[in-house]
Specification:
By secondary structure, this protein is α/β, with parallel strands linked by helices. The protein contains 7 helices and 7 strands; from the N terminus they run αααβαβαββαβαββ.
Length: about 210
Protein backbone atom coordinates (compact mmCIF):
# COMPACT_ATOMS: atom_id res chain seq x y z
CA UNK A 1 0.00 0.00 0.00
CA UNK A 2 1.14 3.55 -0.69
CA UNK A 3 0.98 6.48 1.73
CA UNK A 4 -2.62 7.43 0.92
CA UNK A 5 -3.81 3.83 1.21
CA UNK A 6 -2.07 3.32 4.54
CA UNK A 7 -3.38 6.63 5.92
CA UNK A 8 -6.91 5.65 4.92
CA UNK A 9 -6.51 2.23 6.58
CA UNK A 10 -5.14 3.79 9.76
CA UNK A 11 -8.11 6.16 10.00
CA UNK A 12 -10.88 3.74 9.04
CA UNK A 13 -9.66 0.47 10.54
CA UNK A 14 -7.40 1.44 13.45
CA UNK A 15 -9.07 4.77 14.33
CA UNK A 16 -6.10 7.10 13.99
CA UNK A 17 -7.16 10.74 14.04
CA UNK A 18 -6.25 13.14 11.25
CA UNK A 19 -3.97 14.91 13.73
CA UNK A 20 -2.12 11.65 14.35
CA UNK A 21 -1.80 11.04 10.61
CA UNK A 22 -0.19 14.47 10.24
CA UNK A 23 2.27 13.60 13.01
CA UNK A 24 3.13 10.37 11.23
CA UNK A 25 3.89 12.35 8.07
CA UNK A 26 6.20 14.69 9.99
CA UNK A 27 7.87 11.72 11.66
CA UNK A 28 8.46 10.05 8.29
CA UNK A 29 9.98 13.20 6.78
CA UNK A 30 12.39 13.68 9.69
CA UNK A 31 13.28 9.99 9.70
CA UNK A 32 14.24 10.08 6.04
CA UNK A 33 16.26 13.26 6.57
CA UNK A 34 18.25 11.72 9.41
CA UNK A 35 18.59 8.40 7.60
CA UNK A 36 20.75 10.08 4.96
CA UNK A 37 23.43 10.46 7.64
CA UNK A 38 22.65 7.67 10.10
CA UNK A 39 21.57 4.09 9.53
CA UNK A 40 18.21 4.34 11.28
CA UNK A 41 16.32 2.03 8.92
CA UNK A 42 17.43 -0.16 6.04
CA UNK A 43 17.77 1.78 2.80
CA UNK A 44 15.91 -1.03 1.04
CA UNK A 45 12.73 -0.12 2.97
CA UNK A 46 12.80 3.65 2.39
CA UNK A 47 10.35 3.59 -0.52
CA UNK A 48 7.91 1.40 1.39
CA UNK A 49 8.16 3.07 4.80
CA UNK A 50 4.39 3.57 5.19
CA UNK A 51 3.64 -0.10 4.69
CA UNK A 52 6.86 -1.73 5.87
CA UNK A 53 7.33 0.26 9.07
CA UNK A 54 4.34 2.46 9.95
CA UNK A 55 1.45 0.09 9.17
CA UNK A 56 3.46 -2.92 10.30
CA UNK A 57 3.80 -1.22 13.69
CA UNK A 58 0.28 0.20 13.84
CA UNK A 59 -1.41 -3.19 13.38
CA UNK A 60 -0.33 -4.00 16.94
CA UNK A 61 -3.05 -1.68 18.21
CA UNK A 62 -5.79 -4.25 17.60
CA UNK A 63 -4.00 -6.69 19.92
CA UNK A 64 -3.64 -4.34 22.91
CA UNK A 65 -5.84 -5.32 25.88
CA UNK A 66 -8.38 -2.69 26.90
CA UNK A 67 -6.73 -2.25 30.30
CA UNK A 68 -3.24 -1.56 28.95
CA UNK A 69 -1.49 1.16 30.96
CA UNK A 70 2.22 0.47 30.47
CA UNK A 71 3.95 -0.60 27.26
CA UNK A 72 7.62 -1.52 26.85
CA UNK A 73 9.15 -1.60 23.36
CA UNK A 74 12.36 -3.65 23.36
CA UNK A 75 14.98 -2.72 20.77
CA UNK A 76 12.83 0.01 19.23
CA UNK A 77 15.48 1.22 16.78
CA UNK A 78 14.06 4.29 15.03
CA UNK A 79 10.88 4.03 17.09
CA UNK A 80 9.03 1.09 15.59
CA UNK A 81 6.56 0.18 16.89
CA UNK A 82 6.65 2.32 20.07
CA UNK A 83 6.54 5.80 18.53
CA UNK A 84 3.65 4.79 16.26
CA UNK A 85 1.62 3.73 19.31
CA UNK A 86 2.57 6.91 21.16
CA UNK A 87 1.37 9.02 18.22
CA UNK A 88 -1.89 7.04 18.14
CA UNK A 89 -2.53 7.48 21.88
CA UNK A 90 -3.66 11.11 21.90
CA UNK A 91 -5.63 10.73 25.13
CA UNK A 92 -2.68 9.24 27.04
CA UNK A 93 -4.50 6.02 27.87
CA UNK A 94 -1.16 4.22 28.18
CA UNK A 95 2.50 5.10 28.65
CA UNK A 96 5.23 3.87 26.31
CA UNK A 97 8.83 3.18 27.29
CA UNK A 98 11.33 2.67 24.47
CA UNK A 99 14.48 0.59 24.97
CA UNK A 100 17.34 1.20 22.54
CA UNK A 101 21.08 0.58 23.05
CA UNK A 102 22.33 2.79 20.19
CA UNK A 103 23.17 6.35 21.36
CA UNK A 104 22.58 7.67 17.82
CA UNK A 105 19.10 6.18 17.68
CA UNK A 106 18.31 7.35 21.23
CA UNK A 107 19.20 10.89 20.19
CA UNK A 108 16.86 10.58 17.22
CA UNK A 109 14.06 9.34 19.52
CA UNK A 110 14.58 12.37 21.77
CA UNK A 111 14.40 14.65 18.74
CA UNK A 112 11.10 13.11 17.62
CA UNK A 113 9.68 13.26 21.15
CA UNK A 114 10.33 16.99 21.33
CA UNK A 115 9.28 17.74 17.76
CA UNK A 116 5.91 15.98 18.04
CA UNK A 117 5.21 16.70 21.72
CA UNK A 118 5.09 13.02 22.69
CA UNK A 119 5.48 11.65 26.22
CA UNK A 120 7.30 8.34 25.90
CA UNK A 121 10.36 7.46 28.00
CA UNK A 122 13.69 6.28 26.60
CA UNK A 123 15.96 3.70 28.23
CA UNK A 124 19.28 2.30 27.01
CA UNK A 125 19.48 -1.16 28.55
CA UNK A 126 16.81 -3.85 28.62
CA UNK A 127 18.78 -5.77 31.27
CA UNK A 128 19.57 -2.87 33.62
CA UNK A 129 16.41 -2.93 35.72
CA UNK A 130 13.09 -4.69 36.09
CA UNK A 131 10.65 -4.03 33.27
CA UNK A 132 7.22 -3.04 34.56
CA UNK A 133 4.72 -3.34 31.72
CA UNK A 134 1.33 -4.74 30.84
CA UNK A 135 2.45 -5.24 27.24
CA UNK A 136 5.93 -5.91 25.91
CA UNK A 137 6.52 -5.25 22.20
CA UNK A 138 9.24 -6.86 20.13
CA UNK A 139 10.00 -6.11 16.48
CA UNK A 140 13.36 -6.95 14.84
CA UNK A 141 15.04 -7.38 18.23
CA UNK A 142 16.34 -10.80 19.30
CA UNK A 143 15.66 -14.50 18.84
CA UNK A 144 12.53 -15.80 20.51
CA UNK A 145 14.47 -17.77 23.13
CA UNK A 146 16.16 -14.58 24.38
CA UNK A 147 12.87 -12.68 24.33
CA UNK A 148 11.25 -15.34 26.53
CA UNK A 149 14.28 -15.23 28.85
CA UNK A 150 13.88 -11.46 29.25
CA UNK A 151 10.17 -11.96 29.89
CA UNK A 152 10.85 -14.53 32.61
CA UNK A 153 13.80 -12.87 34.32
CA UNK A 154 13.34 -9.13 33.79
CA UNK A 155 9.59 -8.45 33.59
CA UNK A 156 8.16 -8.00 37.06
CA UNK A 157 4.49 -8.87 36.52
CA UNK A 158 2.11 -10.74 34.26
CA UNK A 159 2.15 -9.29 30.77
CA UNK A 160 1.31 -9.87 27.16
CA UNK A 161 4.14 -10.25 24.65
CA UNK A 162 3.42 -9.04 21.12
CA UNK A 163 6.20 -10.24 18.84
CA UNK A 164 6.45 -9.48 15.13
CA UNK A 165 8.26 -12.27 13.32
CA UNK A 166 8.91 -13.54 9.80
CA UNK A 167 7.97 -16.79 8.11
CA UNK A 168 9.95 -18.90 10.60
CA UNK A 169 7.80 -17.86 13.57
CA UNK A 170 6.28 -21.29 14.18
CA UNK A 171 9.67 -22.96 13.86
CA UNK A 172 11.12 -20.62 16.48
CA UNK A 173 8.23 -21.35 18.83
CA UNK A 174 8.73 -25.10 18.39
CA UNK A 175 12.37 -24.75 19.45
CA UNK A 176 11.61 -22.82 22.66
CA UNK A 177 10.45 -24.28 25.95
CA UNK A 178 7.62 -21.98 26.98
CA UNK A 179 6.56 -23.74 30.17
CA UNK A 180 3.12 -23.86 31.77
CA UNK A 181 2.99 -20.11 32.53
CA UNK A 182 3.23 -19.21 28.85
CA UNK A 183 0.61 -19.71 26.15
CA UNK A 184 0.56 -18.29 22.64
CA UNK A 185 -1.52 -17.62 19.55
CA UNK A 186 -0.25 -16.96 16.05
CA UNK A 187 -1.78 -14.33 13.75
CA UNK A 188 -1.05 -13.28 10.18
CA UNK A 189 0.53 -9.89 9.58
CA UNK A 190 -1.48 -7.51 7.39
CA UNK A 191 1.67 -6.17 5.72
CA UNK A 192 3.35 -9.41 4.60
CA UNK A 193 1.78 -12.76 3.78
CA UNK A 194 4.76 -14.63 5.21
CA UNK A 195 5.09 -12.63 8.43
CA UNK A 196 3.41 -13.49 11.71
CA UNK A 197 2.44 -11.89 14.99
CA UNK A 198 3.03 -14.02 18.06
CA UNK A 199 0.73 -13.14 20.93
CA UNK A 200 2.02 -14.58 24.21
CA UNK A 201 0.34 -14.55 27.62
CA UNK A 202 3.08 -14.54 30.23
CA UNK A 203 1.75 -15.31 33.68
CA UNK A 204 3.60 -14.36 36.84
CA UNK A 205 2.46 -15.08 40.38
CA UNK A 206 0.68 -11.77 40.84
CA UNK A 207 -2.84 -12.98 39.86
CA UNK A 208 -3.95 -9.37 39.54
CA UNK A 209 -4.61 -8.94 35.89
CA UNK A 210 -6.76 -10.66 33.35
CA UNK A 211 -5.45 -10.09 29.84
CA UNK A 212 -7.46 -10.71 26.75
CA UNK A 213 -7.14 -9.81 23.11
CA UNK A 214 -9.56 -7.32 21.62
Amino acid sequence: MNEDDVAKYLKNKLLFSQRSIEKLKKFKIRLLERNRRYNLISKSTINSIWNRHILDSAQIIKFLPDNTKQIADLGTGAGFPGIILSIFDEKNKFHVKLYEKSPVKRQFLKEIRQMLGLKFDIESNVYQEKIVADVVLVRAFKKLAEIIKISRETCSKSHKLIILKGKNAQSEINNVSLGRNYSYKLFNSITDNDSKIILVDAKKNDNKNNYCCN
